[in-house]
Amino acid sequence: MPVGLSVDGALGYPSPSRPFRPSRYVPVSAATTLLVGTTTLFLCFTCPWLSERFSSSIPLYNVVIFLFTLANFCMATFMDPGIFPRAEEDEDKEDDFRAPLYKTVEVRGIQVRMKWCSTCRFYRPPRCSHCSVCDNCVEEFDHHCPWVNNCIGRRNYRYFFLFLLSLTTHIMDVFGFSLLYILHHTKQLDQVDSVVTMAVMCVSGLFFVPVVGLTGFHIFLVARGRTTNEQVTGKFRGGVNPFTHGCLKNIAYVLCGSQAPRYLGRLRKPHSVQVQPPFLRPPLSEAQLEAKVLDNGIQQSKSSLEIMESQSTDADPPPPPKPEHRYPGLPHTQNEECSLLTEAPATPSLYKYRPAYSSPGKNHTASTHSSKMSRGNSMTESPSVPVTTGQPSYRSDPSLSSRGGAGCRGGGEGGRAGSGGLGGASAFGGRSYPSFTDTLLQSAAASCSSSLRSAHTAHNALGPLISEGTTSTSYKSLANQTRNGSLSYESLLTPSESPEFESAAHELSPPRPHPPHSLSTAPGAPPILGYTSPFLSAQQREGSLQACPAPLRPSPNRAFLRPTSSPPSRAPPLSPRARSLGSPPPGPAPGHTPLGKSLSYGGGVELQHRPSRSGGGTSMPNSTIKQNVANHNTHSHKPAGGVKKVTGVGGTTYGISV
Amino acid sequence: MAETHSLQDLRQAAVASKVFVQRDYTSGTICKFQTKFPAELESRIDKQQFEETIQTLNNLYAEAEKLGGRSYLEGCLACLTAYTIFLCMETHYEKVLKKIAKYIQEQNEKIYAPLGLLLTDPIERGLRVVSFLHHAALSVP
Questions:
Q1: SS3 sequence, A89-158?
Q2: What is the pTM for the complete model shown?
Q3: Rounded Cα–Cα distance for residues B41 and B45 (Å)
Q4: What is the distance in angstroms between the Cα of B68 and the nearest Cα belonging to chain A?
Q5: Catalytic site includes residue A145
Q6: Minimal Cα–Cα distance from B117 to chain A, Å?
Q7: Residue A214: C-alpha distances to residues A158, A217, A221, A228 (Å)
Q8: What is the pLDDT of residues A602-641, one digit of tens each?
Q9: Cβ B82–A67 below 8 Å, yes or no?
């Protein structure tokens, strides 16, 4: 079972298993130890005298407060903050690579931007942010708290807030009663009890200031109806907060709102489809299913086949189908594998509906055959397809997560800075955990606000540089390294081993230094012809065309396709897509390694993932190899003349006129 | 696993198109879906029916998120029991979610399945979208 898939039928495993990092657990362990340890010492050494001297209700009261604190601490630590499950592949079908990075919605009259999350593959709802520590989008993200080693979001903010309140109370109680003890034992300070009590006093006194500061800060946030993230990033500074309902209502919402449901780990009900007789089609024969598989994207109804028949006289491939059809064909491959492989290159059943066309038939046969072979090879890879989607964090090279990553990090850092300003250890990046005393020293409420401001400005410095700079031309593809690309198999099928194809391939093969720029004006616009390249190179590799230029060599996808793992692509290291934006793609670079071999079909499978459109010459290093597919596809094959229609990402057709 | 596979089977068997109904954020972050009739469904279902379904869903979610005596009592009880009450009791929201699931199933059986549509529960997608799944060919293997 590939990692990343939901292994138990539960819905929406949030993110793939990440490497175990013990450093993440240091602050939470320290916090737990301090809380429990100090309180235990207090209860054991100080409270006996207090209960004798004053009343036994004192220890009882302290125990109750302590338990309440602990309960809230545990809830804040272990409760799902409101993690959104990763969106499924089909959800972003409408949002191809040209879709903008930001979507604006109006919230109570105020324009709010929703950013595309490349990891989670949806537009983040308002107030949602992606935590880079947890690698999840969290609803109403407040911050990532290292002291509980958890994100604070919609579901557990209440517990976090109550934890702060109760901890403040508890610290005050412990400090106060310890002081009382000491004041009554000034002559017996050398006793064990006194020593312990003094230690307890010191610890509680030391933590009092940062905790109170943080509590005060959050009281302010709750009253204003803001999250730490929003406060730190200055979203509503000088503006109106569309999410506030007034002070009292905000407090009521936090304290008295109903417990929000979790989105993860829900058993998904099987979608049982009861089909009424009128809607039943005659069961498809295996050959027909094959045709569906192979002709993914082609209209599958008989009537549309007739349309295709008329279209088949054209040299151009039929236009790709709507993106909706993109995915259904894909899972077919797993079932059809055996039948595909065992069969000789048969005439696809699709053509059973057509009059005998020699060349298209051949084309289709040949393509079917090779596609079958490659499908066979790629079968084992299809599980990896969801892996790609399921493991975006593995795939995304941090250095390349230009927009998305930076945005994510910005959010994460901003959030962390929020908590880090006060007592939090991680100011930026969550990696450094300064010593305990450092955090304490930082912690005054005044310093809290100043550090928050500095965090905020730092964050802001990050943000504008990356997000604002390319707003007008910021496409999802730039940030999105893991999006499904759409590749109509049709376009893969069309170039075949027929002589016509060879000549066409010849025309197509000379790499163009600059893919049609008119079409690439928008960053992320695909150099069109690239989509034929996987199949082209497949054919070429099978010996038909030796004249293929260097770029049309074994694909990086081979590295990705494990069963046939080959040396990784020679793709040059890629600068973040953002930077490559706008600059004319250098064309198929020498290190450009398009799909090759029969594995191109696996590459075709891989092409289901939306490629980045940063231009032909750029290619991603190892982890985003799948992007190479599209990148290499984008090294354009120049059409001979007229208008060539090629399928682009998301099923879009590009007509190239040469 | 079974659940996952059945959905995959569904996909395999059907040429499915999906229509997504996005969240309506005009009133804030409360859970509400757009009642705007999507163009793709024009030929398939009645606009009135669609709006009624979505509106009912919106009302149910509003009921789930209502800030009232019930949620307050639940919160107090949870506090008093150190949140151990969550081990035994179902929260108000969860109860309404069950109601919603039942409603969706009922709508599917009565109205949408005969039209070749399947309405999915938005909770599966984190309450971000409601999807109408259309099956063109429906011989489920």
A1: HHHHCCCCCCCECEEEEEECCEEEEEEEECCCCEECCCCCEEECCCCEEECCCCEEECCCCEEECCCCHH
A2: 0.56
A3: 6
A4: 8
A5: yes
A6: 9
A7: 15, 5, 10, 11
A8: 333 333 444 334 333 343 444 444 444 334 444 444 444 5
A9: yes
pLDDT in tens, A222-278: 999 999 999 999 888 887 889 999 999 999 999 988 899 999 888 776 665 555 555
Interface test with B, best of A243, A258, A262, A608 (most B CBs within 10 A): A258
Number of H helices, E strands in chain B: 5, 3
Q: Sorting pLDDT into bands at 50, 70 and 90, what band is B59? A: very high
The arithmetic mean of pLDDT across residues A533-543, rounded, is: 47
**A117, A128, A145, A448: which is the annotated catalytic residue?**
A145
**A502, A323, A476: which is closest to A407 by C-alpha?**
A476
Highest averaged pLDDT of the listed ranges A39-48, A404-413, A521-530, B10-19: A39-48
Question: Chain A contacts of B4, Cβ < 8 Å?
Answer: 5-6, 9, 268
Contact of A148 with A78, CB cutoff 8 Å: no
**Cα atoms in the Cβ-side hemisphere of radius 13 Å centred on A643:** 8
Q: Compute the half-sphere exposure of residue B27: CA atoms within 13 Å on the CB side of its CA.
A: 9
Written as one letter, the residue type at A362 is K
- Measure the CA–CA gap between A301 and A292, rounded to whole angstroms: 10
- At residue A85, the pLDDT reads 92
Buried (b) or exposed (e) across A355-383, using 16+ Cβ within 10 A? eeeeebbbbbbbbbbbbbbbbbbbbebbe
Q: Which candidate, A118, A13, A84, A89, places its Cα nearest to that of A386?
A: A89
Interchain CB contact of B83 with A (< 8 Å): yes
* Per-residue tokens: A307: 């349309």
Phi, psi of A88 (to 5 degrees): -80, 165
Contact call for residues A605 and A333 (beta carbons, < 8 A): yes
Q: Taking CB atoms and an 8 Å cutoff, what residues of chain A touch B91?
A: 258-259, 261
**B138 min Cα distance to partner chain A (Å):** 6
Q: Which of the 8 DSSP states describes residue B39?
A: G
Q: Which residue among A259, A268, A335 places its CB closest to the CB of B91?
A: A259
Q: Distances in Å between the alpha carbon of A196 and those of A52, A68, A389, A496?
A: 18, 24, 55, 84
* pLDDT tens digit sequence for A294-338: 544 444 444 444 444 444 444 444 455 444 433 344 444 444 444
- Give the residue from chain B lying closest to A263, CA to CA: B126
Tell me whether B56 touches chain A (CB under 8 Å). Answer: no
Q: Which one of B14, B25, B138 has the shortest CB-CB distance to A107?
A: B25
CB contact under 8 A, B128 and A122: yes
Which positions 7-36 of B are in contact with A (Cβ < 8 Å)?
7-8, 10-12, 14-18, 20, 23, 25-29
